[in-house]
Amino acid sequence: MRLHILWEDLAEVRSLSVRLDAQGIGIGKKLVTTCIKEAKTLGIKRIFALTYHPEFFGKIGFSVIDKSKLPQKIWGECLRCPKFPECDESAVIMNLS
Ligand SMILES: CC(C)(COP(=O)(O)OP(=O)(O)OC[C@H]1O[C@@H](n2cnc3c(N)ncnc32)[C@H](O)[C@@H]1OP(=O)(O)O)[C@@H](O)C(=O)NCCC(=O)NCCS
């Protein structure tokens, strides 16, 4: 997992994955919380993720938003995805400011 900084005010939580036998004990939440802290330290105003588990992110304080509300530029790296342009992940976002 990593915090990918797109612009000075926007970052993405990427590649979040907790090993199957370690799920459900708070590791995912701790990883995302660490990303949020790092983003705040850097003065980033919004942090988002594309996910199949919006409820998990909701518990941490993210809100689901329409993917079309995210800047078009974030889709640059999705061009190689076999699902493009029919992305079936949900977009979630949190305001940090
Ligand atoms: C989704 C994932 C990251 C969650 O990590 P985790 O370590 O199991 O989650 P945590 O134990 O930190 O859970 C934190 C809270 O979210 C809840 N939660 C976890 N997964 C959830 C899910 N899929 N749906 C709804 N709630 C979920 C937990 O019940 C817990 O709630 P609580 O605070 O009320 O007790 C993990 O299941 C995973 O790696 N899945 C496979 C890969 C994947 O889909 N990654 C997401 C890519 S964005």
Could you tell me the radius of gyration in angstroms? Answer: 13 Å
CATH superfamily: Gcn5-related N-acetyltransferase (GNAT)
- Helix-strand pattern, N to C? EEHEHEE
Q: What is the CATH level 1 assignment?
A: Alpha Beta
CATH topology: Aminopeptidase
Unreliable stretches (pLDDT < 50, length at least 5) are none
Percent of residues in helical segments? 10-25%
Strand content: 25-35%
Secondary-structure-based class equals: alpha+beta
Distance between the termini: 23 Å
Q: How many separate structural domains? A: 1
CATH architecture: 3-Layer(aba) Sandwich
Mean pLDDT: 93
Q: How many beta-strand elements?
A: 5
Q: Could you describe the 3D structure shown?
A:
With 97 residues, the protein is of the alpha+beta class. The chain has one domain: Gcn5-related N-acetyltransferase (GNAT) (Aminopeptidase, 3-Layer(aba) Sandwich). Helices cover 23% and strands 27% of the residues. Strands 1-2-3-5-4 form a five-stranded mixed sheet, with helices on one face. The mean pLDDT is 93.
